[in-house]
Amino acid sequence: MVGTSLGQALPMAPPLATSTFSQASGTLLGAIGAVAGFLAILAVIFFVAGRVTGRLQKPLAVIICLVPALFLLLLGLIVPAITTINNSFKNQQFLGELGTKYVGLKNYQFAFTDSYTLQTILRTFLWLIIVPTITVIIGLVAALLLDRMRRNAVPKTLLFLPTAISFVGASVIWGYVYDYRAPGSPQTGLLSAVVMKLGWHNPPHWLISSPINTFLLMVIMIWIQVGFAMVVLNAALKSIPDEIIESARLEGASGFRLFRTIQVPMIRSTVVVVLTTVMITTLKVFDIVFTVTNGNYNTDVLARQMYADMFVTSQVSRGSALAVILFVIVLPLMFYNIRQLRRERTER
């Protein structure tokens, strides 16, 4: 009787795969419908605009070009930013929670007094200092070496290739590199196998040993960003007029002296742009930490803790405060980057 009742009850519960598929299908159809509706509205607007003539033609064309962009900017950036800032001053725990109250700066006070969050902020600044600096140095050296090579297409492609890989994909690849097996067992992790061949018979468990695990995660980001830095800096080196290089060589400058006194000063603005761009990308690092360690073992960063507070531990207001802190840090870097790009453009 028990077996029969269980056998009859089991088919009544929908399979997990079917439920997941139906949810994914509904989400996909909703996204397709939203895109189709937006395109239909644009088609109607362009159709009407094409029939307008006379004085209204030019103003209407400007409005048609600006309104969709401003609408998307408002919907995707301005409204979420205002909502996040507003939530950071509340005691909201869940998304969409009603009846919340304003608590002033308590969430910010918690962020700068909680020991775990403070360590996360300091660790994020450590990423901000180390990753962009090493990335630019390696990218600059690689760009200089490639600039002196006749056939540099293959090495340039190999160096740039990691830039095309997603952060999650790169994290999975390097996760195999950092894989750990106990000494005496077959080593599947490349790093453990190499150091044991070199004589280190008892290497640590790389991803749970602090603080080395944080630096190993930084290596992933550096590996991804070096290709970008190399391509931009190589283009900047090639833009230096040959007459200046030849004149410097005639005056006795060569090798490192030529690089230090002529080439680096002439591409300084490009170096700064690359540095600030990598800094902005590093500040928003989430995928690498989330995929490899999920912030455990003293590897957490601001972006991952913000996500955890908002969507895992149901502390929306605290997560919003971290998002605002991250935004405040990124904002001056963005303005400085834009200023440098404009200055470089005017100098040309």
From TrEMBL:
Residues 121-337 form the ABC transmembrane type-1 domain. It is a multi-pass membrane protein. It is found in: Cell membrane. The chain crosses the membrane at residues 28-48, 60-82, 125-146, 158-177, 215-237, 319-338. PROSITE patterns: ABC_TM1. SUPFAM superfamilies: MetI-like. Its main location: membrane. One of its GO terms (cellular component) is plasma membrane. Keywords: Cell membrane, Membrane, Transmembrane, Transmembrane helix, Transport. The keyword Transport applies. It comes from the Bacteria. One of its GO terms (biological process) is transmembrane transport. Belongs to the binding-protein-dependent transport system permease family. This is Alpha-glucoside transport system permease protein AglF. It comes from Luteimicrobium xylanilyticum. The lineage of its organism: Bacteria, Bacillati, Actinomycetota, Actinomycetes, Micrococcales.
